[in-house]
């Protein structure tokens, strides 16, 4: 290495960094084959902090401002001190820049439903998702525990660690909360603030500050949500007796319009079965027994007066006319094919 090469390597006048893209948390200034000139300038812009590492140890942390690097900030000008080693110094000084601006719109969510004990429903499984934001507050701590000597450290490199930590804290917070699941929708802001307070120490341990935490939604898995919908429907129905009567009355015109049901007698049978079924449902809900047994038939009274002699048998009734190829839907009343098991208009089972 010539003296000219050595002198050219010494002349690093200004060390600075501007973020080329979003999502960078830490950047190592390239120092290979380059050395800092005595009196060189280090520029740290707003939304940045810099860590000066000498001989493998953090020497200083620089906040935004302009710094002159001399013997007070740079302990050894390595090349000047090592002429006998052909300018190959065993000492190495590095500068790391850290972005301290807020990393917004970071998403968290439960990969699988979490299980906890609800005050009203007992043990349930729940899903949740939302957003949060944070920023680097302690570059030295972040450098020592997270980013290390990497040339670049991105937000995506830390995403999995933070998301799993959030889910763990969220599970404990919901489990210790006295708020029932049905009341969570009206308390999402409060729950978000509570989770945020429990999360801040975990973020601070990594050199970060948690700025915001929002719970966008909490819900049940599909199979549990269907059961909850059924329960809500029962509460909306209210008086089951009146609801059953309404449903039976609603079906009478449709049953009468359908052919092949036995005419008026068929309607009467269907109506009687519907009322009996409704009564059985009411008895089951009210804790009563089944329908009352019909009265036992007593001995028949002898016929009064003379018995007429049996005459010749009457001719049998002609066979019923063939049923039509269509019928009416029990729900919407539309014409549908008689063999159809589901209405093509409304999808109701027949």
Give a quick set of tags describing it.
alpha+beta, 350 residues, five-stranded antiparallel beta sheet
How would you describe this structure to a colleague?
With 350 residues, this protein is an alpha+beta fold. A hairpin with a 6-residue loop joins strand 13 and strand 14. The termini are far apart. It has seven helices and 14 strands. The protein has helices at residues 3-10, 139-147, 156-176, 188-204, 222-237, 240-257, 263-286; strands at residues 14-15, 24-28, 40-44, 48-54, 57-62, 65-69, 93-99, 103-109, 114-118, 122-136, 152-154, 208-219, 326-328, 335-337. 16% of the residues are buried. Helices cover 32% and strands 24% of the residues. Residues 75-91, 288-304 and 306-323 have low confidence and may be disordered. It has a five-stranded antiparallel beta sheet with strand order 5-4-7-2-11. Strands 8, 9, 10 and 12 form a four-stranded antiparallel beta sheet that branches.
Set down the secondary structure blueprint.
Elements: H1 3-10, E1 14-15, E2 24-28, E3 40-44, E4 48-54, E5 57-62, E6 65-69, E7 93-99, E8 103-109, E9 114-118, E10 122-136, H2 139-147, E11 152-154, H3 156-176, H4 188-204, E12 208-219, H5 222-237, H6 240-257, H7 263-286, E13 326-328, E14 335-337
Parallel strand pairs: 1-3
Antiparallel strand pairs: 2-7, 2-11, 3-6, 4-5, 4-7, 8-10, 9-10, 10-12, 13-14
Helix pairs in contact: 3-4, 6-7
Summing up helix and strand content along with how strands pair, one would put the structural category as alpha+beta
Bin the helical content: 25-40%
Radius of gyration: 41 Å
Note poorly predicted spans: 75-91, 288-304, 306-323
N→C terminal distance: 94 Å
Beta-strand proportion:
15-25%
- Secondary structure tally, helices: 7
Most strands sheet: 5 strands, antiparallel
Q: So what's the overall shape?
A: elongated
- Order of helix and strand elements from N to C terminus: HEEEEEEEEEEHEHHEHHHEE
**Overall pLDDT, averaged?**
74
Counting DSSP E segments of at least 2 residues, the number of strands comes to 14
Tell me the strand order in the biggest sheet: 5-4-7-2-11
